[in-house]
Design brief:
The protein is 68% helix and 2% strand. With 362 residues, it is mainly α. A hairpin with a 5-residue loop joins strand 1 and strand 2. It is elongated and about 65 Å long.
Length: 362
């Protein structure tokens, strides 16, 4: 009897000393080239330096759709409570279908996988257990768009609705994510993109030597080194999005340089937007990122030369007018013209950089 009592007390003490379960990063569903959804980590850039230049570029470009990161549920429940606690359901205004018709699958083969993403994936469970009002709202939006996609008789419309549904679901997952894990994920993505830039720096230097473009190559790598340093400073100071954007522009400059030197051997990338509004939002972010290049790369030259400062200011003024026009066009629903305005604005930024003596490839 004493032995049983001692054993029981030992088991209780062991349970009390057991470490609580640690939160884990969720692997969000991502769309593969064949239209399926797989569980994989999201990142804004390539991690493996041994990949080919094309692979690195393609995966880094997926950043803008990138829009889409999430983390696994971080629960405070103990192991015992996890076993007995019932699954908490969100109040739902949208009834999800129990079966998918052949017609819907014919419109878009992703229907079944996206349904699982919204209803039963690790991200969906995270949303269901969250108290975030925003997470609930976007989850409802994702279900509503998905239901519309299922009912659509038009292939293009169904795919567009499905893409919007995925985007809304990723937003819901992000809104339900613990802040500490999101911060950790941003740091991981930032570090991966820096490693990708290191890879491109090496390739750009090698190709510059092969093509006899040492002067331009050296100039560009010097600029990228400056940008990476500033991006890191900004990121570490808490301006995560700005730092990430500046790092992406560094990557773009290197890639464009490599494309230009390779001639016909261009790196292939494809950006597919569900709507013109999505394309406009992407172009607006690119404009803001490139605008930062002027402040970083021309800071000293603008302070040293009034002539250069005046010339650069002229280009920037035109660019800002185009950007303001784009925002008005977008507000009026004309996203097609807004995209064109932003493209013109970005050309002015390139002219401003070149007038300041900055080598801008492409």
């Amino acid at each position: 009897m004493k032995k049983l009592l001692i054993l029981s007390m030992g088991a209780i003490l062991a349970g009390c000393n057991a470490a609580p379960p640690q939160p884990q990063i969720a692997e969000p569903a991502a769309l593969a080239d064949n239209g399926t959804v797989t569980e994989q980590p999201l990142s804004v850039a390539v991690e493996t330096a041994t990949q080919s230049t094309a692979e690195v570029a393609d995966r880094a470009e997926s950043v803008q759709l990138a829009a889409s990161k999430s983390v696994e549920q971080a629960s405070n429940l103990t192991t015992t409570e996890r076993q007995v606690a019932p699954q908490r359901e969100l109040p739902s205004t949208v009834t999800m279908p129990t079966a998918i018709s052949k017609a819907a699958l014919a419109n878009d083969p992703r229907m079944d996988k996206i349904g699982k993403l919204i209803n039963s994936s690790s991200g969906a469970r995270q949303v269901l257990s969250s108290d975030s009002v925003q997470a609930k709202e976007y989850h409802e939006k994702a279900k509503s768009l998905y239901a519309q996609a299922l009912q659509s008789s038009d292939k293009a419309e169904a795919s567009s609705l499905l893409n919007q549904s995925i985007k809304a679901m990723y937003t819901a997952i992000r809104a339900a994510s613990p802040a500490s894990l999101l911060a950790e994920k941003k740091q991981t993505d930032f570090d991966r993109l820096k490693r990708s830039i290191d890879t491109f720096m090496e390739q750009q230097e090698r190709i510059s030597d092969e093509k006899g473009s040492d002067a331009e190559g050296n100039a560009l790598r010097s600029q990228v080194t400056t940008l990476v340093g500033e991006a890191t400073r900004i990121f570490d100071a808490g301006e995560k999005e700005k730092g990430q954007a500046l790092l992406r522009e560094s990557f773009e400059m290197l890639r464009n340089s490599i494309e230009g030197m390779r001639g016909g051997e261009t790196l292939i990338r494809s950006l597919n937007f569900a709507t013109k509004k999505d394309e406009y939002e992407y172009e607006l972010e690119r404009y803001k990122s490139q605008r930062m290049l002027v402040d970083v790369l021309l800071k000293e030259k603008l302070a040293a030369s009034a002539y250069t400062a005046k010339k650069v200011s002229g280009y920037i003024a035109v660019a800002e007018d185009e950007r303001a026009g784009a925002e008005k066009q977008a507000a009026g629903g004309d996203h097609d013209e807004a995209v064109k305005s932003l493209e013109r604005a970005r050309k002015q930024i390139v002219r401003a950089l070149r007038s300041g003596g900055i080598y801008v490839p492409g």
